[in-house]
Amino acid sequence: MNTKVTIAGVEWNNPVTVASGTFGSGAEFTDFVDLNRLGAVTTKGVANVPWTGNPTPRVAETYGGMMNAVGLQNPGIDVFCERDIPFLRKYDTKIIVNVCGRSTEDYCEVVERLANEDVDMLEINISCPNVKEGGIAFGQNPNAAEEITKAVKKYAKQPIIMKLSPNVTSISEMAKAVEAGGADAVSLINTLTGMKIDVNKKAFVLANKTGGVSGPAIHPIAVRMVYEAANVVSVPVIGMGGIASAEDAIEMILAGASAVSVGTANFFDPAVTMKIVDGIESYMKQHGFESVADMVGIVK
What we know:
The protein is an alpha/beta fold. 30% of the residues lie in helices and 20% in strands.
């Protein structure tokens, strides 16, 4: 039995990674997780300069999940290259760097900086607001998504994963747009936009008013979108959105995901990824699957 998966030419030991922003760069999880047993570590979003993020409060619990408006706070690419890459290189796992930006130039600058760094893949977060287009996310317009993909591909030495926003009319259209732009893989879904009001204070719970909803409550929506995307593109799909158990992860794989990413569950069960890795192996033995690839997208 073989748990290895190959995503855009990069071989992972198993199909499990973590969702950007839920795991830092792994250092704070080493008491709970053996990083050698993760297929890949996906880092928190990295920008060309340090970002302070949004004002507080910026996290709230919701029924079956959470909302966040952290605003991609990060120390910037210089600190990341000096501190986080050397730390992760100590482990037998692949490194996926999540890249964020406010303009095409921002993204390209980070991608160019990472071209000569010892990292395996880049995940481009196109749910960032495009400042030059009045704040609409790059990932909400198929033309903008295709153009940003083409732009970063010019500078990228590593395979590019485009992370898709679910806040669109047609996820299939967005997946096809980034594939046309040269994406090597797609990951989805990012968070759904939501809002919470404190009825006693008669005020928004988050300072930002809106935030990204994640966690088990969004899982069925994510499975549907992964299925739709996987059936219109030929590049690998990394599925995420509310995965909290091996069963949730396997559901994504059967829907068409070649790998899965675990996010919010890391907050309420820091060791959850280890349980998911074990659970996928048990399922493969029980159901007679020789490889993960044999499971991908078999439900049509």
